[in-house]
Design goal:
heterodimer; A: alpha+beta; Beta-Lactamase; Alpha-Beta Plaits; TIM Barrel; 3 domains; eight-stranded mixed beta barrel; six-stranded antiparallel β-sheet; 27 strands; elongated; B: mainly beta; Immunoglobulin-like; 2 domains; five-stranded mixed β-sheet; 1 helix
């Protein structure tokens, strides 16, 4: 099936095709009818001419026969014949043939002897003639003489019995045929043919033109046949003529070429063809114009739909009241609806429904269109507090009211960026400092209390600024940077601040850190370093503290504070600590194998102390391995769930796991907890120990802490021991254990074993 | 008296031969039908006795109703045949036959012309005025000749015994000269011969 790009082409081709087919049928019918009629005319004419020729043949035969009979019946002639008076017979024949105007005459005796006048006949021809006359009743017929057909007419010579025949021979030539042709209404071709052994022979030699049709024509016996001849299609009629030679039948062949027959109709064919072509052209043109008029509104609609798709104006001109006109009307209405809805959607997409202010998206578009202006965000301070107090709805009113004030103050539209955050574009002449000052001044719009839901509400604002040209710090959107700037301003305690990329750092990079860490636990990227603990009374290394280290494949060394802090926040700390416990147990066995029995301390996050499943794991692992472990706990972490934590610590102690209070002295050191936790060891924060030899206050604090711990039944470990002086001071203060660079840095397991082979205070010595 | 004399002569002639026999010849065409007007002549190899030949029928061909009568006449050689005209019209009798050419120009009613046939053979007779008139005169030189009647049979009596030549002629007998010859031996008693032939030919008389 042909595919059309245009309706009008399709209509035109359809109509032209149908009309063309109809024309074709008409032409075929006309041609067939005319051809049949022409055939019929030619057939009739051939038949009539054939009949005419029969008459001609008969009358010519009769005329000649009469002439011959006159001679044959003459007594003198008969006597001459009977008495073999050859000269007399011959002269009589010559005389008569001249009188009759025939080509030749002869006397053929019944005994076969011949006396001829005119052309001589050979023996074979005489034989044929004699046989034809003697056997048959033939008195007139075609005789082939020297390869040419002749008419032979005979009259018997009776004396009184038959003694011979007077025969007249007359050539059948073109002149006779031309006479016959002139008698016909149509210019046909007439010819006498004989069938010899080598094919049909005409009046002047072998017949080639009609040879193909002759046998069929003869078989039809007097009816005309049509067919292809050497001169094209023709109709041929063959009328049998009597022949003296039974083996060489003779016929009169009448032929007429069909091209001649159709010639008179040629102008009609041309006219018909011309009319058809003109009609077809008119139809094509008419259909084209009509369908164009018909399809123009549809084309307009089609183009309008494309415009509608592209978001352009898609109104169509209505030109009619028919179906297409109504369709255009409906289309216009629909396009209008779509436009309105689109506008509404766009408005909704760019505005905050609650307050009617533009939203963050709108502000971002504004920011994108002006690179030089500052994006200023105003955050409502203590947002959650205020919201919890007055509710979401009133919060919306609050933001709307503050937005209105800001808008009034700046003359610029204000967008609601977040629940408690407004933003606007600030065009300020001057540098960033002027912009910050202006933003800080704008924060004052909130100074006057707002009256909402019948209550006075105090609100304050903090402004954050950002510019498109600033370093992004990984935040692509300037609005996001301004939002960060609010937090930065609050952290700095100022009313307004410009986004500081350096302070912001790269928090985004750490977002995938935890999943990296879980993967790293499977590999050897996370490993355990051990820092020896030196017993000041035994003067020997009696324990180590296990410290986790992570060599990130892409980011190299990652500070333990970072990934452990994040692990605590995300809950991954449990997996990490469980890994640490297993590692410590395994390494303690490896140390024992090397001949060193050491207590291994592990840092356990305070959050895990309220985790029952971790507690079960730890108790299981330790009791199964019979390990000698110490859990160092940062006491601030216990605060979350004191009862559960204290219970678990008790169970650790019961299972033989030592408990140590880490980093004592920094942060909030609660004496209340110190009293309640059943700890074995107190570790003094290195901040005090490192300045021990310089600060009398610190020395006093360390000394009193040591005493306090001892009095509570705990041993004391000092961290950050880096000098011999500090070591000596601590020894003097009665400290039990020292830990620090003076003894050793945190070491990998193999390095630790090497270190243990050496004297305990080698570095110090 | 003359007739009696003739009879005695014939008798003497016949009896003069020690033995003589009769011969009956039946002439039939190919379909077995009898053929009339077939002339049968017998010539004993011993020869024919000298002396005039006489037949029992008149040597005459009349013209009646524009026809010759009889159609076939057997005449001894040298005998004179008369042609009486019994019609009211005139006739012009002629023959172009070899040896017996003659022409009797127009003669009227009740006029008789004669012609002596000098040659043995067949003469075809016609009338120059009436084409349909045709008759044959078979001129013979033997005593023993006769023509078949409507039964197709003919009996010739008194033929001397011994070998003889039998000839059958008929204008339509389809052989050369319209005659067929046979050799046979004539016995002393009655003999019988049947001749069958094609009688569809045209007469060929020159």
């Amino acid at each position: 099936m042909i595919r059309f790009r245009h309706l009008r082409t399709r209509l035109t081709v359809l109509y032209a095709g149908l009309f063309g087919i109809a024309l074709l049928f008409v032409a075929l019918a006309v041609f067939t009818a005319i051809t049949a009629s022409a055939r019929s005319v030619v057939r009739g004419e051939l038949t009539a001419t054939g009949a005419v020729y029969d008459q001609l043949w008969e009358s010519r035969s009769a005329q000649l026969e009469q002439g011959a009979a006159v001679l044959a019946q003459d007594f003198g002639f008969r006597e001459a014949v009977a008495t073999n008076d050859e000269p007399t017979v011959s002269s009589a024949l010559e005389n008569l043939s001249a009188r009759q105007g025939v080509d030749g005459a002869l006397l053929l005796g019944s005994d076969g002897y011949a006396i001829t006048a005119g052309p001589s006949l050979d023996e074979a021809t005489l034989n044929t003639l004699w046989t034809g006359l003697n056997d048959g009743e033939l008195s007139s017929g075609v005789l082939d003489l020297n390869g040419q057909p002749h008419q032979a007419v005979a009259a018997p010579v009776m004396a009184p019995v038959l003694i011979g025949w007077v025969v007249f021979i007359d050539r059948l030539d073109q002149t006779q045929m031309t006479r016959l042709e002139e008698l016909s209404a149509i210019p046909l071709n007439a010819s006498v043919l004989t069938r010899a052994a080598d094919g049909w022979r005409g009046m002047s030699g072998p017949e080639s033109a009609l040879a193909g049709l002759m046998d069929r024509a003869v078989a039809e016996d007097g009816a005309a046949v049509g067919g292809r001849t050497a001169q094209g299609e023709a109709m041929v009629l063959a009328r049998p003529l009597p022949s003296f030679d039974a083996d060489a039948p003779a016929v009169l062949a009448l032929s007429y070429p069909m091209a001649e027959a159709l010639k008179p109709y040629e102008p009609m064919f041309w006219a018909l063809g011309g009319i058809s072509l003109v009609g077809l052209a008119l139809l094509v043109a008419g259909t084209w114009f009509l369908s164009r008029g018909l399809t123009r509104p549809i084309t307009a609609l089609d183009e309008a739909v494309h415009r509608l798709q592209a978001g352009e104006d898609a109104q169509v001109e209505i030109t009619s009241t028919d179906e297409i006109g109504r369709l255009a009307e409906s289309f216009n209405a629909m396009a209008g609806d779509i436009r309105d809805r689109q506008a509404r959607l766009t408005h909704m997409a760019l505005h905050d429904m609650e307050t009617g202010l533009p939203n963050r998206l709108w502000l971002e578009r504004q920011a994108a269109s002006s690179a030089s202006a500052h994006v200023v965000l105003f955050g409502v301070d203590r947002f959650e507090v205020v919201r919890n107090a007055i509710g979401f709805e009133a919060m919306g009113q609050l933001v709307a009211a503050l937005g209105a004030r800001l808008s009034t103050a700046t003359g610029a539209p204000v967008a609601r960026v977040g629940a408690g955050v407004m933003g606007l574009m600030l065009e300020i002449e001057g540098d960033d400092a002027d912009a910050i000052a202006a933003a800080a001044r704008l924060c004052a719009v909130a100074n006057e209390p707002l009256k909402l839901i019948g209550a006075r509400i105090d609100a304050s604002l903090t402004a954050g600024l950002a510019r498109a040209v600033q370093p992004t710090g990984g935040l692509d959107a300037v609005v996001d940077r301004a939002g960060v700037a609010i937090d930065q301003a609050r952290a700095a305690g100022s009313k307004a601040a410009l986004f500081d990329a350096a302070a912001y750092g790269d928090p985004g990079a750490n977002l995938s850190l935890m999943s990296d860490l879980i993967c790293a636990l499977e590999s050897d990227h996370v490993w355990m370093a051990y820092q020896p603990k030196f017993d000041l009374r035994q003067n020997a290394i009696t324990g180590v503290e296990g410290l986790m280290r992570w060599n990130h494949p892409k980011r190299d060394f990652i500070a333990p504070d970072l990934f452990i802090g994040m692990a605590e926040e995300t809950g991954q700390i449990r997996a990490l600590t469980e890994w640490g416990v297993r590692r410590a147990i395994a390494d303690q066995k490896a140390l024992a194998k090397a001949g060193h029995r050491l207590k291994v301390s592990i840092n356990v996050s305070g959050r895990l102390l309220s985790d029952e499943s971790f507690a079960r794991f730890a108790l299981n692992a330790v009791s199964r391995a019979k390990a000698d472990l110490c859990f160092e706990i940062t006491e601030t972490a216990v605060i979350d769930n004191p009862e559960a934590a204290l219970g678990i610590i008790d169970r650790f102690a019961a299972a033989g796991i030592k408990v140590s209070i880490d980093d004592y002295g920094s942060g909030l050191s609660s004496l209340a907890y110190l009293k309640r936790i059943a700890a074995d060891e107190l570790k003094i924060d290195k901040a005090f120990v490192m300045s021990l030899d310089e600060s009398a206050k610190d020395a006093l604090l360390v000394k009193s802490t040591i005493d306090l711990a001892h009095s509570l039944g705990m041993t004391v470990t000092a961290e950050g021991v880096e000098t011999q002086t500090a070591m000596a001071l601590l020894r003097g203060m009665g400290c039990d254990t020292a830990q620090g660079y003076l003894i050793a840095r945190p070491l990998a397991l193999t390095a630790l074993i090497e270190r243990l082979e050496k004297p305990a205070l080698e570095a110090a010595a | 008296m003359r007739i009696v004399l003739v009879l005695i002569l014939v008798f003497l002639t016949l009896t003069g031969v020690a033995h003589a026999g009769d011969l009956t010849v039946s002439v039939r065409d190919t379909a077995g039908r009898p053929v009339r007007d077939a002339v049968v002549t017998v010539r004993p190899d011993a020869g024919v006795p000298r002396g005039p030949i006489r037949f029992s029928w008149p040597l005459r061909i009349a013209q009646r109703d524009v026809q010759f009568q009889p159609y076939v006449l057997i005449a001894p050689v040298g005998a004179t045949v008369s042609f009486p005209n019994l019609d009211r019209v005139r006739h012009h009798v002629y023959s172009f036959s070899r040896g017996n050419r003659f022409e009797i120009e127009l003669f009227g009613q009740d006029q008789t012309r004669t012609h002596a046939f000098a040659s043995v053979g067949t003469a075809a007779l016609g009338c120059n005025i009436h084409d349909q008139m045709l008759a044959y005169v078979r001129v013979v030189d033997t005593h023993w000749a006769a023509k078949t009647d409507a039964t197709g049979d003919v009996t010739i009596a008194g033929i001397p015994a011994g070998p003889a030549r039998l000839v059958v002629w008929h204008p339509r007998l389809n052989v050369r000269g319209n005659e067929s010859a046979y050799t046979l031996t004539i016995g002393t008693g009655p003999g019988r011969q049947t001749m069958t032939g094609d009688f569809s030919a045209r007469a060929a008389v020159r």
